[in-house]
Amino acid sequence: QVHLAESGGGLVQAGGSLTLTCTASGTTPYGRTFQINGVGWYRQAPGKQRELVAAISGRGTINYVDSVKGRFTISRDNARNTIDLQMNNLGPGDTAVYYCAARRSTILATAENEYHFWGQGTQVTVSS
Q1: Which of 20, 29, 51, 57 has its CB 3.0 to 4.6 Å from that of 8, i.e. a possible disulfide?
Q2: Is 106 exposed, middle or buried (0-12, 13-18, 19+ CB in 10 A)?
Q3: Nearest of 97, 113, 100 to residue 48 by alpha carbon
Q4: 8 A C-beta contact, residue 97 and residue 91
Q5: Which helix (H) or strand (E) holds 23?
Q6: Backbone angles phi, psi at 127, to 5 degrees
Q7: Which residues are registered as beta bridge partners of 62?
Q8: Is 84 in contact with 74 (CB distance < 8 Å)?
Q9: Chain center to CA of 4
Q10: Could you write out the DSSP letters of every residue in 58-121?
Q11: DSSP state of 34
C-alpha cells in the first residue's frame, strides 16, 4: 500500500512564498519500500479543471506549466523520499488545492492517467 502525503499549504499574502512537500511511504506488492520516482504536482482551483503545475522524473528531468515558470521550483530528496515544490511570488491566481501524484516509472509524465498514486491535497490560499 503506497501513501502520499502533502504538507506545507496555508494562507499567504500575494508576493509571499510557500514550500509544499510530498512524502511517500508504504510498500510495493513485492514487499519493498516504495521509492518515489516520477512525480507531478497538480492543482485545482474552484470551478476549474485540475492542471499539472510541475513534474519531475526519477532522473531529475523537469517540466513546468508556463504560468509558474521562474516562480516555482520542484526538487527531489531521494534520501527522505520526498518531492518539494517551492513557490515564490505567489498571486491570487495560484489559489487552489495542490495534489501530489506519483508513478511507478522513473520517466517524466504530464498526463493524469500516467500517475498511479495520489495524495489527498493541501489547500493554498493567496490573499491579495
Answers
A1: 20
A2: middle
A3: 97
A4: no
A5: strand 18-26
A6: -95, 145
A7: 56
A8: yes
A9: 10
A10: TT--EEE-GGGTTTEEEEEETTTTEEEEEE-S--GGG-EEEEEEEESSSS---SGGG--EE---
A11: P
CA 104 to chain centre: 15
- Largest Cα separation within the chain, whole Å, is 49
Tell me the chain's radius of gyration from C-alpha atoms: 14
Digit-coded pLDDT (tens) for 34-44:
888 899 999 99
Q: Mean pLDDT of all residues in the chain? A: 95
- How confident is residue 105, by pLDDT bands cut at 50, 70 and 90? confident
Cell 501513501 belongs to 3
Task: Please tell me the number of Cα atoms within 13 Å of 105 on its side-chain side.
Answer: 9
